[in-house]
Amino acid sequence: MKELRKMLTLLFMVYWFTYVLGKCLLDYFSGDQVEIVAIMLSALGWGVLPALGSYAGLSQVVMPKLRYLESEIVEEPTFFEKREERVSNENGAITFTNLEEICRARYVVTFADGEEGVIKMRTTLSLWSRGVGYCIKFKDVNQEAVMVFIPISTGNRKVEQDAKRLKLLVEGLASAS
């Protein structure tokens, strides 16, 4: 959630600065007196409106997925767009410990429980990309790792690429012994 606040703050600052710069240039070139303090104060409102609109949209699409990734709930809610992959662990080469270690090195791990065999993680969030969330369910009993890929925002093209990358990583662990 910290990244979301950073994104909204950055978005507000971009709108605020753009409004101040645009209004100052417009007043200057039209021959009006440039009142920088008045422009900066009016820019507060014009900077807040788009940031609040973005927050409303993000809270409907992104926040429920981030809450799920940070929660202890194992089963995915049904409203998520998701993709599932399975990796066999017949030779027992994958252990929860080494899987968690590799995930922590490459992703932001939001929840891990060795007893349940669940690792939830995500890529970093930015203003331009909302990233991908992952839930890996690892069970020694059925000798497989089930990976669920959850795009944090809809229409995310990174899901396919990241899904292949993580699947190859886990398959590499499975064939390592």
Automatic annotation (TrEMBL):
Domain of life: Bacteria
Transmembrane regions listed in the UniProt entry: 38-58
Keywords noted in UniProt: Membrane, Transmembrane, Transmembrane helix
Protein's recorded name: Uncharacterized protein
